[in-house]
Amino acid sequence: EIVLTQSPATLSLSPGERATLSCRASQSVSSYLAWYQQKPGQAPRLLIYDASNRATGIPARFSGSGSGTDFTLTISSLEPEDFAVYYCQQRSNWPPRFTFGPGTKVDIK
Amino acid sequence: QVQLVESGGGVVQPGGSLRLSCAASGFTFSSYGMHWVRQAPGKGLEWVAFIRYDGSNKYYADSVKGRFTISRDNSKNTLYLQMNSLRAEDTAVYYCAKDSENYGDYPTEVDYWGQGTLVTVSS
């Protein structure tokens, strides 16, 4: 079973700063890695799929990179609405399943 | 626009059963695989189950295999989750979620989520 690890657990930054979030897989997931944003009391929202493709309607300040076991979500300049929890997610075809990482909370410094 | 509306949550005793429903609209339901994903209070996301667009294949997390059953009725644009032998650790908000790939054989990623329904397992 593939395990995802996210770091740091919490990232304290100010609006306008750059955020760099890491997701590491216990074995290669190729480019089958997605990122989601979740705000309190809301459902998650898809940001990035296949490691580097922005989902529909996602601002260009969000970007994803990586392949294999190491992935990064970058928010180039934090907006007030970006303070939230971010999850990475991998998919495997055999056995067919999803795995989410434990999340990184981005909060206001 | 895509809408997913869950219902059926509530309080149930350990060992009990509950059936969740998800009414889908705004897209061709019969063309997309669907998921249930849950989130325990204050915790992260946990994938529960996936069903192929035509209902022919179903996949489950180990934590619910043998106790939960995912199903769908494409004529009613509705997804279901039958939950049996419920445990305290099943307490969570359950989200209905649409897979992003049409006519996909396997889960990929979720592009739309419902608002969730809370299931509480407690005596």
How is the topology of this model organized?
The complex is a heterodimer of chains A (109) and B (123).
Chain A: E1 4-7, E2 10-13, E3 19-25, E4 33-38, E5 45-49, E6 53-54, E7 62-67, E8 70-75, E9 85-93, E10 96-100, E11 104-108
Parallel strand pairs in A: 2-11
Antiparallel strand pairs in A: 1-3, 3-8, 4-5, 4-9, 5-6, 7-8, 9-10, 9-11
Chain B: E1 3-7, E2 10-12, E3 18-25, E4 32-39, E5 45-51, E6 58-60, E7 68-73, E8 78-83, E9 92-102, E10 110-113, E11 117-121
Parallel strand pairs in B: 2-11
Antiparallel strand pairs in B: 1-3, 3-8, 4-5, 4-9, 5-6, 7-8, 9-10, 9-11
Characterization of this structure:
The complex is a heterodimer of chains A (109) and B (123). Chain A is globular. The relative contact order of chain A is 0.33. Chain A has no helices and eleven strands. Chain A has 109 residues and is mainly β. In chain A, the strands form two sheets. In chain A, strands 2, 4, 5, 6, 9, 10 and 11 form a seven-stranded mixed β-sheet that branches. Chain A has strands at residues 4-7, 10-13, 19-25, 33-38, 45-49, 53-54, 62-67, 70-75, 85-93, 96-100, 104-108. In chain A, a hairpin with a 3-residue loop joins strand 5 (45-49) and strand 6. Chain B is mainly beta and 123 residues long. Chain B is built from no helices and eleven strands. Chain B has strands spanning 3-7, 10-12, 18-25, 32-39, 45-51, 58-60, 68-73, 78-83, 92-102, 110-113, 117-121. Chain B is globular. Chains A and B meet through strand 4, strand 5, strand 9 and strand 10 of A and strand 5 and strand 10 of B.
Keywords:
heterodimer, A: 109 residues, mainly beta, 7-stranded mixed beta sheet, 4-stranded antiparallel beta sheet, 54% strand, globular, B: 123 residues, 11 strands, 0% helix
